[in-house]
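Fold sample X.
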Amino acid sequence: MIEVTASTVQDIALMSQSERLKGRPKICSDCGLCLSSYRPLMPETCAFVKNQTREIEQRLHGRNRKSGDELLFGVYRGMYATRLRQPRPGAQWSGMITTLGARLLELGLVEGVITTRAAPGTRYAPLPFLACTPEEVLASAGNKPCISPNLSVMDEVRERGIKRLAFIGASCHVHALRAAEAELSLEKLYVIGIPCTDNVAYPDLLRFLRVVSASPDTVVHHEFMTDYRIWLRHEDGHVEKVNYVDLPMGELDDVFPDSCLACFDYVNSLTDVTIGYMGAPMGWQWLFVRTEIGEELFRLIEPDLEFTDFFERGSRQKSNEDLIRILAMTNRKRTPLPIRKLIAFMQRRSGPAGLEFARSVIEMKLLRNLRHIRTKFPRHEARVIPYFVYSALEAYAPVYEKTFDQPLSQ
């Protein structure tokens, strides 16, 4: 095992996908566990070697997912559309995640918070680190949508004798962390999750911005919003908006790692709390309280929050049936501009919205990633695809079987 230092992790953050994953297993998210002394646990903890969602849910909740929304959203005790009354400067949204991490340190509930800041000289290259002051956590605000070896910091946690820890990360990190939890000798662990899909290596993110934006070097934040457009916020404050259907995916087909195309936990379901935005009204955040510890975290931040109601509109069924047919196509040509404009107009006018938009997107990812596994890694299916996926997609079984001449369920 190589000695991992801050400079080593910084070098990794700037590497291309092929450089950082060279010599790794066929499906690897570079979660960081293999960069630590916990590497021997990898075969028993990696979501891409042996997915343990069913077993971890039983340990966390005493049960697995119920039918209905839990099949898509994961087990939860409470679901809220909310945001901070006073947004944090520099945050992607209102700053709820960094506020929680900082508050845990302020109150002495933890001795450290594993989170990510931007590598020096970059806006987006994630540099995982152990924050030990509220100021360090708050300074790390802002999304870094790149694969990141967050679990590499676990050696520093052990070396410094930290027993009460908060961890902020994506679903591949959280699965491995939960699977290894009994080996970490922690007295208390708070797990704060971000929903995560289709991360890329840092050079590929820069390439994506060059393809999508008219001014890629000035993009401060970007997000795939619920109005079917990417919003790119620039240094001068203006927001550039690009329709989903206008993305030239033919130029970007190779940017997503196999790990992201083999992930079935967009909602980061094994956390104590998950904080995102996809199911909330525009401008609000989507918060899941999942565990008893999650309820403790929610009480810490609740006085600072304002709330609104959820809503839903439209139906996801037809659009995802169409997606199944699209997944079967080869050599797809880009839709002409006038038709793309019409599609974008109709999506915003009558497409799935609110919670139905979230369900639609999650099902879309499940369908796409199921197809990716079956096409590229068919022998991995039983080990990689978690138990709930087939039930969650049951409504699409007839179209799937007709399209691919193969049952949807294994």
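Fold sample Y, listed below.
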Amino acid sequence: MLAKAPRGTRDILPGEVEEWSTLETFFRNLCKNYNYREIRTPIFEHTELFSRSVGEDTDIVGKEMYTFLDKGKRSLTLRPEGTASTVRAFLEHKMYAQAQPTKLFYFGPMFRYDRPQAGRYRQFHQLGAEAFGSASPEIDAEIICLAMDFFQSAGLNQLSLEINSVGCPQCRPGYREEIRKILEKNRRDLCPDCQSRFETNPLRILDCKIEGCREVTLQVPEILDHLCSYCVQHFEDVINFLKLLEISYQVNPKLVRGLDYYTNTAFEIVDTGLGSQNSLGGGGRYDGLVETCGGSATPGVGFAIGLERVLLSLEQQSSQLEYTEESRIFVATLGPSASARGLQLVTELRRNGIAAEKDYQDRSLKAQMKQADRVGAAKVLILGEEELEKGKIVLRDMEKGDQREVELEEILQILKNDL
């Protein structure tokens, strides 16, 4: 029957499009508040991009990709996710030569040959954000905060943030061997997919949803007990920054995500009222992905959100969609304590509808003022260790060139009045 969309796809009709457009507009404005810039990549890429970055042994590459030969006999694939394409664009257009970090966001259709069900389609849509060039755990917290702000401001109130560390290339190989050693005697009890994963990527067994596999893995020790000192410290720092930003979380030591490129931070955001298909989105850090795709070693962190899942959650909760207007403030900080308080401050400003940005590279004040110019900041808040001790902050008007010292606790109301 020609007058029917292919299985796993759907038309978005008038009456629904407005809901999609509202969410997309809200996400775009929120990302601008966080100083992320929009990027749009092709719907199809060279197949090798995904096989190298996502991982040849993942379900996505092995089972779910829509791959075809064009007339030139080149193997092309409809993009199954957005991070690999964003990394490819980051390299091809030499965005690494710009002032870092590079902060990008996107939304659009993705394609996976999967079993269609509620909230899951073969053509589905993702909202995503990626940040390249900073290994700071502060930006891990920022990327999580951005995702949580999107959900909560959209009206979703049954959220649970699950977080874990999946280690790094230094400590993860030993943990993989530990998994193989422990599961060897019960290997036949694993599902066919996990029996294959036993050789290729045993960490994926921990994330299997089949009850038999979940029971077998109960005897596997937590990866958090096998992290190297760097990974332990990084994870502790991320957790502390989440606490600082008052973001509730649950450590899930079984969370490994479905892609091979993750390192250190891995997280997932679920709707506790959606049932078994409850994941709204997730992400993590991928410090080796840019290098895998042919670039120099460059840290990165990001997330992707399933738009269909968000709409399903909103429908079940009868939530209203809202989004804020854009404003521009830059917070310049000097010293570790001031930087942490600055992270807290920009988050507070963003949550009150004021676009805010800060430095994540420990730059000098002069360099931070240049960065403020680049992001088009109308005002700059300057916070050093001395100001922090006094409970003060310097408010500088970039257009007038004047500045004054004000009470730190009053800065939000002052900016609301000025703007």
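Sample Y note: The mean pLDDT is 91.
Also: The first helix runs from residue 17 to 33.
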